[in-house]
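Appendix B, Record 12. Input sequence as logged:
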Amino acid sequence: VLQQFARLLEANTRESDICWRYGGEEMAIVLPETPLQEAALLANKLCATIRQHVFRGTSEQDLSVTSSI
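Logged structural output:
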């Protein structure tokens, strides 16, 4: 699930943005030269994208994941 989550982050951020995992389930994104309002829009978009995505578990079961940003 974490790998799928990371791929979603990378697919929905710019090439100049930096995404990384810094804890168990904690992720961080650095958005260089991004105004606060644009960062907030991206945060909302990512939450919706993650909520709507069907994640696959290790036994190929469908999983639902949410996030808070």
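Strands lie at 18-21, 27-30, 55-56, 62-63.
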